[in-house]
Structure formats: structure tokens, C-alpha cells
Q: What sequence folds into this?
């Protein structure tokens, strides 16, 4: 595929859908960017400039067309302490270093590590984010007048019923109709309800180049490196998980390593115009896809329109009722949650369900996506190792003279099954010779080699000759390198295993 065809496919194959979805995302991004700025303890413009810059840059550099990246709550939570103790300039420096680390991760191909994240972890991650998105709307629905509830209910009605209209329902995204219509109603009736303007002051100037005003020395590096590393890890985790989800929603694939690099470039650019570091946003990405966005153009439009709206149309944007945006985010929450996972609880194995539920519980409890994914991956690895360990079978048969027993090993020998492997042999049986057939087995690690050594040496201690046959090339290589049973002082080394 030549360059022109690639550009057309990734940018201009869905122009109308991308323009409309980008507009919806831009409107939804504004209050979120302000809210995340407040969480981080910085001026609203820091989050707004970041969202504009990251969205525009990632449209060119990212590896997942149709995915929205901007300032996020997960990243904002990591910045709180740094901003409080050292100020905005150190945050900008940390964001810049975060970008450098993410580019390095891309070149190290760490995006490929997503293959180690099981499906149950991804589902848990999605469900947890859906719950967090819904919980984030609750402050807007507590201690308010009935007008807010009525507007929110009306917004949900528009979102879900408008697509049922012939033709026009398919052409215009219902979230956009919801925002525009409820804003018009609120202005016409003069309703005294919370608006975007109430969340913080919108910027009235375009961003300018801003190099972080910090000393370039080792002391500065010591201060920002822990924060930069944490932001890089969390940002990449959320971006990779979101990319996987968008892959599923659109039935397409993405370049995870390119996405790592792209996120890094976007965060560097953001820090140089006074913005905070960000990453992919699952909620906004779902809004984009559900509204018809598919290509890089949708993300570019979202970022560009966001800047135009907050700088040149702030008076109008400020009048958007928060109830309209709450309705959109509730729609996102409902659409993001994997409802099939509840139905499948009775069908799936207990281990799969535990991994999913543990991921949800940790993310919701800590509001830290990295912790949840780490716990989920760890549990999934433990359950997998335990399951594979049970698939080891060792049979045996005695020859006609009763002097030789042949053991047939079938399955995987590694740290989880090593004890079972050793326990399957009868060392007290009076035999002249033992043959261990490993042609249907595989030895994976030094624990497996240690177990094999233990078996061979124990038989020899009882005066039984041992022969190993059928080792495949990979197993033979690790046995030759780490095995002790064929060494002259093998008995002395047995205790070392």
C-alpha cells in the first residue's frame, strides 16, 4: 500500500462521521479537562491545552486510528503531590521526561507485552472504568434541584431515542443533539443549573511555547523521575488497554509500539506549551466510535475544535449545562460496561471470574488502573501456571523380568509441576534399571531441571541405573546447561536444588 492510499484510508475514508464525532468529543472533553486540572491542582488551561495538543499530535503519531487521547484522571492523580510540593514547572518537566520514557518504551517494543494481558483482565479493566466513569458523575447529581434530574433524564432519552428516527437519526450523532438541544432549552428557560463555566475559567489566549523553568541538574531529575516513571507506566497501560478495546469495537488492529512512541511525542509537545501529560481515554474513545468516528481525522478534529471552542467561543461553551454532559457520560458508562461478563459468570471457570472481579475491585478501590492491571495479570499468571501444572501425567510399566521400569512423562515440567514430577517416581522399588521417556514432555526452567536431577540422583543412590531418552532439543539444551546429574560430584550438588 502506497502513501497516498494509506493517508486516504487513515484520514479521509469516513469524513462526515469523523467530523461529527470529533465535535461531540470536543464538547465532552472540555469539562473533563477542567475537572482533571482541578484534581492535579493546576489551572484549568493546563488540562485544556494538554487535551488540545495531545489529541492533535496523536492523530499523526499514534498507532490506533479513531482512539482519543487527552488529559486523563488517572494521570492527574499521579501529579497531585508533585504539583503541591514543587509547583507547575516541575510538572511540565516531569511530563516532558514521561514522554521521553514512553518513546523509549516504544523502541524497546514494550507495547508487545499486551499479549500477556488476558481477556479476563481486559474485561475487568473495562468494567472498572465504566464504574469509575459513572461514579464521577454522582457529584453532579447530588444536592441539586429537580431540574438537573429532569435535564439528565431528557438527555438520556434523546441519546437513546434519537437514533430510532428515520435517516436523520443515523446521520447526526445523538450525543451531539443532546448537548445542543439541552443547552438551548437551559438558555431559553433561564434554568439556574450548573454549567461548564462554573467548573473553572476558560482560557482566552492561544498556547505558546513554554520550556519548563527548572534547573537542569541531577537534583531536578531525582525529584521528577519517580513521577515521570509512574506516569509513563500508567499512561501506556491505559493507552494499550484502550487500544485493545477500540480494536474490538471496530474489528480492526492497531500498532501498539507505534502508539507508545506516539503517546511519548504527544506528551513532550504538551509539556512544551504548558500542558500536563495525558494518555488514551476509554470514555471519549467509546463516544467517538459510537458517534461514528473511525479514522485519525476524528481525533484531530476533537483537539482542534476543542481549542477553537475554549478560546474563541468560551461564552457559548460556558453555557452548556453539566446535566447534558452527565447524560453523555452515563451513556458512555453503560456502553463501556461488558454486560455479557455478568451473564458469563455462571459459564466461565472460577479462575477467570476471580481475575475479572479482582481487577474491577482493585481499580475501583484505588482509582489506579496500574494496580488493577498488575493484580489481574499476576492472578491470571498464577491460575494459568497452576492449571498447566495439573496437565502433567507420568505413567510407567515394568518389564517381564521385573528388573526394569519405564516411565513415560507427558506434559509440561516447570516450577508449578516440579513437585508432582518428583512425587510420581518410586525410589524404593528394587530395580536394576529405570528408563525415563521424555519424548512427550518439555522442561521449561531450572526448577524442572532441578527436579530431574533430584529424580536421577535419588535412583542412583538406591543403586538403580537411570537412562533419559527422548529429550527434545530445547529441553536438552537447558539440561546440558544447568543439569547436575551427569556431573562427577552430582550427589554433593543435590542439596543445592
A:
Amino acid at each position: 500500500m502506497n502513501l497516498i492510499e494509506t493517508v486516504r484510508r487513515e484520514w479521509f475514508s469516513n469524513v462526515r462521521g469523523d467530523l461529527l464525532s470529533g465535535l461531540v468529543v470536543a464538547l465532552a472533553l472540555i469539562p473533563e479537562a477542567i475537572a482533571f486540572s482541578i484534581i492535579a491542582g493546576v489551572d484549568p488551561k493546563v488540562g485544556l491545552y494538554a487535551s488540545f495538543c495531545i489529541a492533535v499530535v496523536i492523530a499523526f503519531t499514534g498507532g490506533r486510528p479513531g482512539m482519543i487521547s487527552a488529559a486523563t484522571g488517572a494521570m492527574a492523580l499521579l501529579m497531585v503531590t508533585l504539583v503541591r510540593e514543587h509547583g507547575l514547572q516541575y510538572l511540565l518537566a516531569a511530563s516532558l521526561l514521561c514522554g521521553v520514557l514512553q518513546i523509549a518504551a516504544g523502541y524497546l517494543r514494550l507495547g508487545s507485552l499486551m499479549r500477556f494481558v488476558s481477556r479476563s483482565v481486559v474485561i475487568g479493566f473495562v468494567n472498572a472504568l465504566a464504574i469509575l466513569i459513572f461514579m464521577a458523575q454522582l457529584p453532579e447529581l447530588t444536592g441539586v434541584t429537580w431540574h438537573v434530574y429532569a435535564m439528565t433524564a431528557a438527555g438520556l432519552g434523546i441519546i437513546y431515542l434519537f437514533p430510532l428516527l428515520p435517516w436523520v437519526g443515523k446521520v447526526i450523532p445523538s450525543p451531539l443533539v443532546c448537548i445542543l438541544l439541552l443547552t438551548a432549552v437551559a438558555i431559553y428557560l433561564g434554568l439556574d443549573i450548573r454549567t461548564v463555566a462554573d467548573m473553572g475559567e476558560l482560557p482566552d489566549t492561544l498556547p505558546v511555547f513554554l520550556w519548563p523553568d527548572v534547573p537542569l541538574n541531577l537534583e531536578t531529575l531525582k525529584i521528577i523521575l519517580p513521577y515521570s516513571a509512574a506516569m509513563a507506566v500508567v499512561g501506556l497501560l491505559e493507552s494499550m488497554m484502550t487500544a485493545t478495546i477500540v480494536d474490538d469495537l471496530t474489528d480492526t488492529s492497531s500498532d501498539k509500539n507505534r502508539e507508545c512512541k506516539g503517546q511519548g511525542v504527544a506528551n513532550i509537545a504538551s509539556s512544551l506549551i504548558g500542558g500536563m501529560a495525558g494518555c488514551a481515554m476509554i470514555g471519549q474513545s467509546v463516544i467517538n466510535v459510537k458517534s461514528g468516528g473511525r479514522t485519525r481525522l476524528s481525533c484531530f478534529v476533537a483537539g482542534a475544535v476543542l481549542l477553537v471552542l475554549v478560546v474563541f467561543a468560551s461564552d457559548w461553551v460556558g453555557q452548556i449545562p453539566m446535566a447534558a454532559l452527565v447524560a453523555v457520560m452515563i451513556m458512555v458508562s453503560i456502553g463501556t460496561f461488558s454486560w455479557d461478563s455478568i451473564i458469563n459468570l455462571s459459564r466461565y471457570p472460577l479462575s477467570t471470574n476471580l481475575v475479572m472481579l479482582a481487577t474491577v475491585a482493585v481499580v475501583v478501590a484505588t482509582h489506579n488502573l496500574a494496580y488493577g492491571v498488575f493484580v489481574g495479570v499476576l492472578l491470571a499468571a498464577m491460575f494459568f501456571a497452576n492449571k498447566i501444572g495439573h496437565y502433567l501425567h507420568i505413567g510407567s510399566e515394568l518389564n517381564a523380568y521385573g528388573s526394569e521400569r519405564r516411565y513415560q512423562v507427558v506434559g509440561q515440567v516447570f516450577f508449578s509441576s516440579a513437585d508432582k514430577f518428583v512425587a510420581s517416581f518410586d525410589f524404593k522399588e528394587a530395580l536394576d534399571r529405570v528408563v525415563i521417556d521424555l519424548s512427550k514432555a518439555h522442561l521449561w526452567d531450572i526448577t524442572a531441571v532441578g527436579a530431574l536431577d533430584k529424580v536421577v540422583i535419588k535412583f542412583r543412590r538406591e543403586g538403580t541405573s537411570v537412562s533419559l531418552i527422548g529429550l527434545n532439543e530445547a529441553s536438552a539444551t537447558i539440561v546440558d546447561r544447568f543439569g547436575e546429574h551427569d556431573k562427577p560430584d552430582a550427589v554433593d550438588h543435590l542439596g543445592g536444588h
Q: What stands out?
A: The domain at 391-496 is CATH 3.30.750.24 (Transcription Regulator spoIIAA). The longest strand covers residues 433-443. The chain has two domains: 3-349, 391-496.
